[in-house]
Automatic annotation (TrEMBL):
Residues 3-179 form the Phosphotyrosine protein phosphatase I domain. Pfam families: LMWPc. It comes from the Bacteria. One of its GO terms (molecular function) is protein tyrosine phosphatase activity. Residues 188-212 are annotated as: Disordered. SMART domains: LMWPc. This is Low molecular weight phosphatase family protein.
Length: 212
């Protein structure tokens, strides 16, 4: 079975598709990246502001459509990454055995920031499968539960709210992928600010977001 990373938010049109697209650009093809929403706006495209921000980084999301989270998606995912603690709780209520592999994005970035990463891993599938173990080992060294672990929903707000959320997701994703030492070249590290509108080369592989 393929190793799957599942990104989760509320509507699956703002935050989780951005995380999924960034992860797709930072993985080597040995993992599948998907996203879904706990109350998805099913079949809708990505929010225009988020699509524009991804495009400014050279990432295409034009084929994305939102989908509803299901228990089966949770059961088959090696790691589930949510945007808020409430979403994490919703995932665990649906599939209790997923508790040790479900994290908010900010929690994951905070706890892994001091981890040496998965030593001797040869591909991204192996790296991501080890994430729950790495988090378990590092969590006692952090006061993560005293931190703000939520990334707010920008839906229905202005452009600056979308930009702020995008940059928080970008930064946390960069931290996580940096620790894991993902297989593809870390071209995202030197990417321009979305304010510049500069374009990067398209990644070599692409798939529709939100679909395994």
């Amino acid at each position: 079975m393929a190793t799957t990373i599942l990104a989760v938010c509320t509507g699956n049109i703002c935050r989780s598709p951005v995380l999924a697209r960034l992860l797709l650009a930072r993985t080597d093809g040995t993992v599948q990246i998907s996203s879904a929403g706990v109350r998805a706006r099913a079949h809708e495209p990505i929010a225009p502001h988020m699509g524009d921000l991804l495009k400014s980084r050279g990432l295409d999301s034009s084929q994305f459509t939102a989908r509803q989270l299901t228990p089966e998606m949770i059961r088959t995912a090696a790691v589930i990454i949510t945007m808020t603690r409430a979403q994490r709780s919703a995932v665990v209520r649906a599939v209790p055995e997923a508790v040790r592999r479900t994290f908010t994005l900010l929690e994951l970035a905070h706890v892994l920031s001091t981890s040496p990463g998965p030593r001797s891993a040869t591909d991204d599938a192996t790296r991501w499968v080890r994430v729950p173990e790495l988090v378990s080992l590092e969590r006692l060294n952090h006061s993560a539960w005293n931190r703000d672990l939520d990334i707010e929903d920008p839906y229905g707000r202005g452009e600056m709210a979308f930009r702020r959320v995008f940059e928080r997701i970008w930064s946390a994703t960069d931290t996580v992928c940096g620790v894991l030492g993902t297989g593809r070249q870390p071209w995202l590290l030197s990417a321009p600010s979305p304010r510049t509108g500069a374009q990067l080369a398209q990644p070599r592989h692409s798939s529709q977001l939100g679909r395994p």
